[in-house]
Design a protein that fits this description.
Layout (H helix, E strand, L loop, with lengths): L5 H4 L30 E2 L1 E2 L9 E2 L5 E2 L4 E2 L5 E2 L2 E6 L25 E2 L5 H5 L6 E5 L17 E4 L3 E4 L4 E3 L3 E6 L5 E3 L3 E2 L16 E2 L7 E2 L2 E7 L8 H4 L10 E6 L3 E5 L8 E3 L11 E2 L1 E4 L6 H7 L20 H6 L14 E5 L2 E9 L5 E8 L6 E7 L5 E2 L6 E6 L9 E8 L9 E8 L2
Length: about 450
């Protein structure tokens, strides 16, 4: 672990007033409205977003009712190409970066931190490549609306009055074939060196891993949206397929300013806590995948359903909604939330129905049907296999499509509103939704 000053540890995990920010990007934790890179909670549940469930030292757990965020459908399955730049031996097991996030700041693999002398010797920067696919889980990451994967380091808020974080930053790169890697374009607006125990303002940092708190009771990760790479030369050339990402590489940044971001028209020097000791450099805790193919069985696995809780008609939370409909309408199967079922409203524009869906659900077809009685129905809008909700000719309903998540940068859960525009003086109209499970 990085050598942490006692004064900084004392501030860890304490609530602080949100400070005035210098840059446009997200704060270190709990900043859901930021449209650039709002941090994603590693834990969720009744005890509060982002509050990690860890042993309390007396046989119980802090925030015991929380659980790992089920938004993540897969975690890194394997590691390769591990280089620790400084030759250290502590926290040097790549396997510590595999599996679900823990919130434990000691459960990390360090990439090391190069000194001035080592930089002069042109030694390689610390790096680690993580893989999401296997024979049992062959589906790669793909580009869907909003964040596609999230990286958890072990940074923490070390200055309660400013919101400044103590942590190390890293470049993030993705690959389809394990040979060609496209690097996310980053921005670092930190103006000068911070020193070995200095802090940086996370609102000045974009698309570099390590800017969000994951220690001291709070667990938040940095989101990455594959759409940011749409114009990368390797993507344009077809060497990196954004709908078939199988590997993510993290590359440490020595924070003395010798490394640059990709800001235009002129890049900036990147600064972080440098030179750090112990497990210096970037400390990778976990890497969670959001945008992988989702099916009903996998959704049940992600929700930790077992035994009699599983199955299309099972109703583990007793809210009168079977699991298949809980899945179809992006509900929580272990929390009574029937209020999230589709709703019908009437206004001057006509009858409308609104509902939620998870765009990763590729094994369902959603059909919005309209009728003048309860016997005869016509499909006016349809979404198939996770695709967009579109009108069905000859009908022209008004369709709205918005992100449902409180986290601005997450667009996986959508809320649709379909308004049936009937001719003036027509007979009364009815709306309903039909869910069809695909083979």
């Amino acid at each position: 672990m990085k050598r942490i000053p006692i004064a900084m540890v004392a501030l860890c995990g304490f609530a602080f007033a949100r400070p005035l920010v210098a840059g446009p990007y997200s704060a270190a934790l709990d900043d859901p409205a930021n449209t650039f890179d709002a941090p994603v909670p590693g834990f969720t549940g009744p005890d509060g977003e982002g509050l990690e469930r860890l042993p309390d030292g007396s046989g119980g757990f802090r925030y015991a009712r929380n659980f790992v965020n089920p938004l993540f459908l897969r975690w890194a399955l394997a590691a390769s190409d591990y280089v620790r730049s400084d030759g250290g031996s502590q926290f040097s097991a790549p396997a510590l970066a595999l599996g679900p996030v823990t919130g434990d700041y000691l459960n990390v693999v360090s990439l090391g931190d190069l000194s001035t002398e080592q930089l002069g010797e042109m030694l390689p920067k610390g790096r680690l490549t993580l893989h999401f696919t296997s024979a049992q889980a062959p589906e790669p990451l793909r580009d869907l609306p909003g964040a596609d994967f999230v990286i958890f380091e072990n940074a923490f808020v070390a200055n309660a009055s400013t919101g400044g974080i103590f942590g190390d930053l890293a470049y993030v790169e993705v690959s389809s074939d394990g040979a060609n890697f496209a690097r996310f374009p980053s921005v670092s607006l930190t103006a000068s060196a911070t020193g070995p125990f200095g802090t940086l303002d996370p609102t000045n940092v974009f698309q570099l891993a390590g800017k969000h708190q994951n220690a001291g009771g709070e667990c938040w990760g940095t989101p990455f949206d594959l759409a940011q790479l749409a114009t990368h030369p390797l993507v344009v050339a077809g060497l990196v397929d954004l709908n078939a990402i199988r590997a993510v590489r993290v590359v440490d940044i020595p924070g003395n300013g010798s490394s640059l971001d990709e800001a235009t028209p002129a890049p900036h020097s990147i600064y972080d806590a440098w030179l750090s000791a112990g497990s210096g450099g970037f400390d990778l805790e976990a890497l969670g995948a959001i945008s992988v193919v989702l099916g009903f069985e996998r959704w049940q696995d992600a929700q930790a359903l077992a035994g009699a809780e599983r199955g299309a008609l099972a109703d583990a939370d007793g809210d009168g909604v079977g699991q298949l409909l809980e899945y179809a309408f992006a509900m929580r199967p272990l929390a009574a939330d029937a209020e999230l079922l589709p709703r019908v409203t009437l206004d001057s524009g006509g009858l409308a129905i609104s509902f939620r869906r998870d765009t990763r659900a590729t094994d369902l077809t959603y059909e919005v049907l309209a009728g003048s009685d309860l016997q005869h129905w016509e499909v006016i809008a349809r979404s198939t296999a996770g695709g967009p909700l579109l009108e069905v000719a000859p009908f022209s309903p008004a369709i709205e499509d918005n992100s449902e998540s409180a986290i601005a940068s997450l667009g996986i859960i959508r809320r649709h509103r379909v308004q049936d525009i009937a001719a003036p003086g027509s007979t009364p109209r009815f709306l309903r939704i039909r869910i069809v499970a695909l083979p």
